[in-house]
Specification:
5 helices; Mac-2 Binding Protein; single chain; disulfide bond; 24 strands; seven-stranded mixed beta sheet; mainly beta; Soluble scavenger receptor cysteine-rich domain-containing protein SSC5D; six-stranded mixed beta sheet; about 25% strand; 4 domains; repeat
Length: about 475
């Protein structure tokens, strides 16, 4: 029962699953004015509607898009069509899993200004030389905005242990422990990305909780994607006594039982080459089958937010020492990378040129980029924000490719020139970033190969600048 002003369907009044009298054949549907046949596009196989494998509806069938020539301009059109913000990355190689059925599009060549993907130039419908291992994907900026929480564990020592609470009608309430069992707890741990259920230790007390009890007689099979999908009494109907609240201890709370993970040689602790600690040594992860779901677990383990990209081929430089993990297959619900299925510690046929990387949204300072001392917001000296200070970028290797990325990230069009500090000054002289190497197609500087922070090797001591096409 919706009023019509709610921002999400889950904010409307409903009955818990299993308490209705509805049967198959009475499923509800929607037709929106902005989605005519032939123009429909969707992103699938990820936890956000604004990131995933690109699929397009044509001739009454959904099909995929080949990654030949797939770039950020193509991704920009998809993000605009879905009202998902700006394109952050355009991963190929089926990083969101392989589709099936027909491959509708290939060799896409969007300018970035089209309203729909089908407006872009490309090969004729269904004509391609691809297989589903080349399915294209998109990550839009709205995908890194966390969705409002509707489930939490309260009053524990870690986010993965505590009293179970659910949000309903904008109020947090407890869950009664009548019939509460391992299957119910498994759903909670999986929904929160907290791994597996651990046996609750005797004497654990997570407090009495809020006065409102929203759910009672919860009965999950253990496979449901969310606690509210399990059978239960109607919302708010409970005979639960005071203090009889359900609680959970998930494996994610036992941090010491997991192999530690870190991201190195990147622009901060939330982006870089993936390394895991095993047998008293740090080692890397091979990029065979490395994808967004694997990267999601790394971001969760490090409390670094959502995934922005999962770069491969030693994007953050080659590591040293052992290669500990290969052929990683995560479900996305694990609390740590070492909980995911792999070939086993040290079993691989890889070289360090295949080291896997991750960029998480927690690297928020990477998005803090500005142009200063120019005549308008789209020209000037390039500065990034780090360690509570603005600093420049060294001009060693700085050219139009890098300037294009800066202009694109700032929404200033293409670059007209890659100027030095002789034109825009040096500021206080601080240089944060050195040795930038972009192809020119990246959506933001953090996707380029960059040496961070400080500029001990900056030979020129000159600050990079740009003039973008959108400059006055």
């Amino acid at each position: 029962s919706c009023v019509g002003t709610e921002t999400t369907l889950s904010a409307c009044k409903t009955k818990p699953q299993g308490n209705g009298t509805c049967h198959h054949g009475r499923e509800a549907g929607v037709v929106c004015a902005g989605n005519s046949e032939g123009d429909q596009v969707r992103l699938v196989n990820y936890s956000s509607r604004c990131a995933g494998r690109v699929e397009i509806f044509h001739n009454k069938k959904w099909g995929t898009v080949c990654d030949d020539s797939w770039d950020l301009m193509d991704a920009e059109v998809v993000c605009r069509q879905l009202d998902c913000g700006q394109a952050l990355s355009a991963p190929g190689g089926a990083q969101f899993g392989r589709g099936d059925g027909i491959i509708w599009m290939d060799e896409m060549n969007c300018t970035g200004t089209e309203n729909t993907l089908s407006d872009c130039l490309g090969r004729p419908w269904g004509i391609n030389n691809c297989y589903h291992g080349e399915d294209a994907g998109v990550v839009c900026s709205d995908s890194i905005i966390p969705e409002p929480a509707h489930l939490r564990l309260a009053n524990g020592s870690h986010r993965c242990t505590g009293r179970v609470e659910v949000l309903h009608q904008e109020e947090w309430g407890a869950v009664c422990d009548h019939g509460w069992d391992k299957q119910d707890a498994e759903v909670v741990c999986r929904q929160l990305g907290c791994g597996r259920v651990l046996p609750a230790m005797e004497g654990l007390d997570f407090g009495s909780g809020p006065p409102r009890i929203w759910l009672d007689n919860v009965n999950c099979q253990g496979t449901e994607p969310a606690l509210t999908k399990c059978q239960a009494s109607p919302w708010g109907e409970s005979s639960c006594g005071h203090g009889k609240h359900a609680s959970v201890v998930c494996s994610g709370s036992a941090v010491s039982s997991f192999a530690p993970v870190r991201l190195v040689d990147g622009p901060g602790r939330c982006a870089g080459r993936v390394e895991v600690f095993h047998n008293d040594k740090w080692g890397t992860v091979c990029d065979d089958n490395w994808d967004f779901t694997d990267a999601k677990v790394v971001c969760q383990q490090l409390d670094c937010g959502m995934v922005v990209s999962a770069p491969q081929r030693a994007h953050f430089r080659e590591g040293q020492g052992p290669i500990w993990l290969n052929d990683v297959h995560c479900l996305g619900t694990e609390a740590a990378l070492s909980e995911c299925r792999t070939k086993g510690w040290g079993v691989h046929g890889c070289e360090h040129g295949e080291d896997a990387g991750v960029v998480c949204s927690g690297n928020h300072h990477l998005l803090n980029l500005r142009l200063v001392n120019g005549s308008d917001p789209c020209s000037g000296r390039v500065e990034v924000f780090h360690d509570q200070r603005w600093g420049g970028i060294c001009t060693d290797g700085w050219d139009l490719a890098e300037a294009h990325v800066v202009c694109r990230q700032l929404g200033c069009g293409a670059a007209n020139s890659a100027a030095g500090s002789a034109r825009f000054g040096t500021g206080d002289g601080l240089i944060w970033v050195d040795a930038v190497e972009c192809t020119g197609t990246e959506g933001a500087l953090f996707e380029c190969k960059v040496k961070f922070w400080g500029a001990e090797s900056c030979k020129s001591r000159v600050h990079a600048g740009v003039m973008c096409s959108a400059a006055a």
